[in-house]
Amino acid sequence: MRITFVNFRQIPQLIEHYSRFNPSPLTIKKFMDFGQAKCEKTSFLFLKRELPVRLANIMKEIQLLPDKLLNQPSVSLVQSWYLKSFEELLEFESINTPTATDLQAFCDRLLSIRQRHNNVVQTMAEGVIQLKSTYSVDSSVEHSIQYFLNRFYMMRISIRMLIHQHAILFGGDRPVHPRHIGCVDPNCDLYSILLDAFENARFLCEQYYLMSPELIVEQHNGVNNGAPISIVYVPSHLYHMLFELFKNSLRAVVETHGDEDRLPPIKVLLTKGEEDVSIKITDKGGGIRRSLSDVLFNYMYSTAPAPSPTSVHNTVPLAGYGFGLPLSKLYAKYFHGDLVLNSFEGHSTDAIIYLKVLSSQAEEYLPVYNAASSKNYRHQPSTHDWSSSGNSSSNNSKQNKKPFNNVKSHIIN
Q1: Residue 126 known to be catalytic
Q2: Other C-beta atoms within 10 Å of 220: how many?
Q3: Could you tell me if 121 and 270 lie in one domain?
Q4: Residue 148 and residue 251 share a domain
């Protein structure tokens, strides 16, 4: 194997160099085409450049985080993982005509990087928890963290997608199903994934609460009436979203109606049109206050109490960490879908997943490091220019003075 030895003193310059390139987003169709061609050399040549670009883009943003967060041990650890992975990938930088030995070494290296990054989500979350438990976090820092985590975790999803795809096609990983092309299922049966996610979430619910509501599913195929609804998609991504949403719905229903003889069922409407597949999950779990709508997708926010780190029964908690919804939304948006919540306080909540029907339109949605993105770490959120009871805090740029404080009242009480 012909390894390029990296001068570690040049690493900052190399990160700067690679960060100047934009990531090259792939559509699901391109993932399929790559996989069907099954040319390991082509995949190698693409990944040896693309992965350092994606790593460098997000590493530059890590450096823009507030010092108080950067100095947390967990964040420093994550930063060291990314730096190590970047250095290891650069060893293949100059290899343009790889041998079989080169290809095997590269695949092994990808598997090693994937293993190293397995706990990135939890470790970065620990850093945020450490920051909030140690310091008072103002709205500016909160905004920077939220902005960064959305971009950081989205880039992580994309990097793992590239590595998983290569590992299944050319490494030791095996596809979940023989018809899968890498991570992608060309005939992804949405109903079966939905049932699987519900049953696993229901198992947790019954383990935790000793009860659970039923599931009612209605399907409507507007493209091919009566046919099962399927698209080209990544089953593991869809499962992650559905599992998180079902956990939330099950908990809400049981905690709202647990003392009743019969729990209201969770209803799912699954539809397919020319452009979008829509999955609407409706639960009668009491809904969510509209005043909380802006924070539901914030990291570290949860309507459930934080789970105890020392559970007597050592069971997986049903909720409480505050990452389920924001990460699920990222998985939905990754291929230009979306996840939205519509709540009716005192009654119910609708959680809706939108997915692209056409694989040629389902393109990776990736953050790009540039001057515009860096401004979001330096500037406070813009001040409000509408009057409301929530805008009268001392954070406003204008002093909160009553204009008639010094005018004697002529009102007779």
Answers
A1: no
A2: 13
A3: no
A4: no
Please say whether the beta carbons of 237 and 28 come within 8 A.
Answer: no
Give per-residue pLDDT as tens, 52-104: 999 999 999 999 998 889 999 999 999 999 999 999 999 999 999 999 999 99
- In this structure, are 129 and 220 located in the same domain? no
Domain final position from 150, 179, 208 = 179
- Would you call 247 a catalytic residue per the annotation? yes
Catalytic residue among 150, 237, 248, 329: 248
CB 73 within 8 A of CB 131: no
Q: Which of 117, 247, 267, 329 is catalytic?
A: 247
Alpha-carbon distance of 256 to 250, in angstroms, equals 10
Q: Residue 78: which residues within 8 A CB-CB, separation 6 or more?
A: 62, 120, 123, 124, 127
284 annotated active-site: no
Residue 237 domain boundaries: 185-356
User: Using only C-alpha atoms, what is the Rg of the chain?
Assistant: 24
Residues 55, 190 share a domain: no
d(CA 224, CA 350): 26
User: Helices 40-62 and 28-37 meet at what angle, rounded to 10?
Assistant: 140
Count of H-run helices and E-run strands, the chain: 12, 7
Mind listing the pLDDT tens digit for each residue in 246-290?
A: 999 999 999 999 999 899 999 999 999 999 999 999 999 999 999
Give how far the C-alpha of residue 336 lies from the chain's centroid of Cα atoms, to the nearest Å: 13
Does residue 150 have an active-site annotation?
A: no
Active-site annotation holder among 240, 272, 329, 356: 240
